[in-house]
Specification:
The complex is a heterodimer of chains A (244) and B (72).
Chain A: H1 19-50, H2 54-80, H3 108-127, H4 135-141, H5 146-167, H6 170-189, H7 197-204, H8 212-229
Chain B: H1 15-39, H2 44-63, H3 66-70
Helix pairs in contact in B: 1-2
Classes of the chains: A mainly alpha (244), B mainly alpha (72).
Amino acid sequence: MAHSFSDTVELDALTSQDPEYQHLLKRVLAIQADCEIGGPHLYVDAMLPGAPTQLDQLVVARTAGEEIDHFRKIARLAGDMGVDTSYLLSRPNQERYVAAFRGSINTWEDFAVFGFLIDRVGKYQLQEFVGCTYAPLARLVDHPSRIMDEEEGHIDYGTTRCAELAASGGQQRERLQKALDSWYVTALDMFGHSDSARAERYRWWGLKRRTNEEARRQYIQEVNPLIEDMGLTVPDALSGRKFV
Amino acid sequence: MTHATHVPPEAWSRAAPLDDYLREVVMNLHQATDRGIRNVRERPAEAARTLQACQDIIQDIMAGDVQDWVGD
């Protein structure tokens, strides 16, 4: 289904929009806020003290701070439309909307792969809002966008650390491959069902641009060559998947 | 097209105060990490103290005690 609604909606016009539009917008903001704050909840307990060097620990703190700021920005958009997302700040990990945020990160390999793969999915999610029909959200991600630049920084850091760990070989490389195998499947699942009816409604209302399948395909095309360049094995794209 | 006359939604009462609070906390955290990164080579003990401060700030945010931060 093609994107059909093309108005530019500002906050003051929100209540006069179709209820489905308002519902989907509130829903996607709540999920985005949950993902932004869900990241730090995964890794700060173990990685703030446990990253290999003091510099890495400071980068973990910086990354967490940036994700908290992304939460703040999304929470403000939601708050301005009357939605309280503050409960997400301390929500137990097991209750997060997206499965990727329901566990914990306890190893440096997992933290590196999380940046490399999962923050990259986060970039894809944010790209969906570029030029979207809700103007305050579009302005948040339109170039130049601090939130997009910071997300790119997290991805670069994770990618660089993965490349270093892969290059070190031996058991280190094996641990990295194991982490990659696990997070790769999680990352692909984050795009949702290929035939999701809700995703099509998001597109119809101009709140998302790509189909789930399109975005996942582009992600695979981007990430697989990077994995191969590191000398790692690209995991099976279907094995263990929950959403195909 | 933007419609001419509308009734804006009623904002969540803590939206602006929480935004202000978190903005300041993040600014403090960013300043602390910048300071820590500058000190990491020459003054590791100072960097360690900064890291502890960062950890305290982040744990406070993760606790999410919004009422304590911005009241009712």
